[in-house]
């Protein structure tokens, strides 16, 4: 298999030179893996398993004893530096050895405390010539377009998720609780071979379905419910994300009505996706269908998001974060309508932008047929 990390590093260095940076500190776990192959995640934001320092012609991975063995095997293209009692001493050494004066950092992720430590270390070494530049999304923009290996992993994650989802769907019935369904999803995904769910399963039955990110409760499914099921798996570090809405045998006509509207909006958006279209334009196509049907205020979130190493990543569809779509971007298409006190409907597919349109990575299954 072709090593992708050298090509990705070259792309980062091109961006660094455009910004007149001679160093770049990488703290986002997904970006760390994307550029090095180092797979360790972070337990929490304030407890990192490591950092990359990328210079103009050298790169280092800074970590501690707990990850030394993995790092040496997973990131052989990086100089490995182990810190024992804080990273400041190692930072100073690598900044000095790499000749770094103007350093970019991931401001959307690095904590303020660590930012101050980085700035103090660089300025202590370089004086007034030391400059720390806050960046937002440098690597994430590169991650938007997937290579063939990434696409294969995404397809595998989708396939695993759908295999588990089909069993859950077949067993879903009045009388089971939201928590039972959520556990069946999570256990099934683990047992099928995934490392983890890509996010805690969302199971919202009846009025709980009006909560877009409903947390499963002890509420039991009833025959007149709609049940929103939003699930995903992480397999070989890549994520899947899908949503279907189960319609009970005695669900009210209003629920069936909004289901048809949501499905129409989803299909129209998928039909519109192609290279060179602005993503916000796709959002508006789906949103206008829901608006004309009289439910515009009940669709309060974006049409979807990118999926890859993170279950939510660039590109987006919003006015402020829209992008011109390119071939091999992978996004979700997930319109929804939420009616407090009654319930909600959301339908979500993952799609790949092709040379002339889009390919659904999700199966055309588990939709209401009327």
TrEMBL record:
Coiled-coil intervals: none
Keywords noted in UniProt: Aminopeptidase, Hydrolase, Metal-binding, Metalloprotease, Protease
Location of the Peptidase M24 domain: 153-354
InterPro entries: Creatin/AminoP/Spt16_N, Creatinase/aminopeptidase-like, Creatinase_N, Pept_M24, Peptidase_M24B, Peptidase_M24B_aminopep-P_CS
Residue stretches making up the Creatinase N-terminal domain: 8-145
PROSITE patterns named in the record: PROLINE_PEPTIDASE
A GO molecular-function annotation: aminopeptidase activity
GO annotation terms (biological process): proteolysis
SUPFAM superfamilies the record matches: Creatinase/aminopeptidase (SSF55920), Creatinase/prolidase N-terminal domain (SSF53092)
Family: Belongs to the peptidase M24B family.
Protein's name according to its UniProt entry: Xaa-Pro aminopeptidase
Organism field: Desulfacinum hydrothermale DSM 13146
């Amino acid at each position: 298999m072709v090593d992708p990390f050298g090509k990705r590093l070259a792309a980062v260095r091109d961006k660094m030179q455009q910004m007149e940076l001679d160093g770049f500190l990488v703290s986002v776990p997904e970006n760390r893996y994307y550029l090095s192959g180092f797979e360790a995640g972070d337990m929490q934001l304030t407890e990192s398993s490591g950092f990359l320092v990328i210079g103009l012609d050298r790169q280092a991975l800074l970590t501690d004893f707990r990850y030394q063995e993995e790092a040496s095997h997973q990131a052989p293209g990086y100089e490995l530096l182990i810190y024992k009692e804080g990273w400041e001493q190692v930072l100073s050494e690598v900044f000095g050895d790499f000749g770094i004066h103007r350093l970019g950092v991931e401001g959307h992720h690095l904590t303020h405390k660590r930012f101050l430590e980085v700035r103090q270390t660089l300025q202590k070494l370089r004086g007034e010539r030391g400059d720390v530049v806050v960046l937002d999304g440098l690597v994430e923009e590169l991650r938007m377009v997937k290579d063939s290996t990434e696409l294969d992993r995404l397809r595998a994650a989708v396939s695993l998720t759908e295999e588990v989802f089909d069993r859950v769907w077949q067993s879903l019935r009045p009388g089971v609780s939201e928590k039972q369904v959520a556990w069946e999803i999570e256990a099934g995904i683990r047992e099928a071979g995934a490392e983890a769910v890509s996010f805690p399963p969302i199971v919202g039955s009846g009025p709980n379905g009006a909560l877009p990110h409903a947390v499963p409760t002890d509420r039991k499914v009833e025959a007149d419910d709609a049940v929103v099921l939003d699930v995903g798996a992480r397999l070989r570090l890549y994520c899947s994300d899908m949503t279907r809405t189960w319609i009970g045998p005695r669900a009210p006509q209003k629920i069936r009505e909004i289901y048809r509207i949501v499905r129409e909006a989803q299909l129209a958006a998928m039909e519109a996706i192609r290279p060179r279209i602005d993503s916000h334009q796709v959002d508006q196509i789906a949103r206008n269908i829901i608006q004309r049907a009289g439910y515009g205020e009940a669709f309060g979130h974006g049409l979807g998001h990118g999926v890859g190493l993170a279950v939510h990543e660039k590109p987006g569809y919003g006015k402020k974060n829209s992008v011109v779509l390119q071939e091999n971007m992978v996004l979700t298409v997930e319109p929804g309508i939420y009616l407090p006190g009654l319930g909600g409907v959301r339908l979500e597919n993952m799609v790949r932008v092709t040379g002339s349109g889009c390919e659904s990575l999700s199966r055309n299954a588990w939709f209401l047929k009327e």
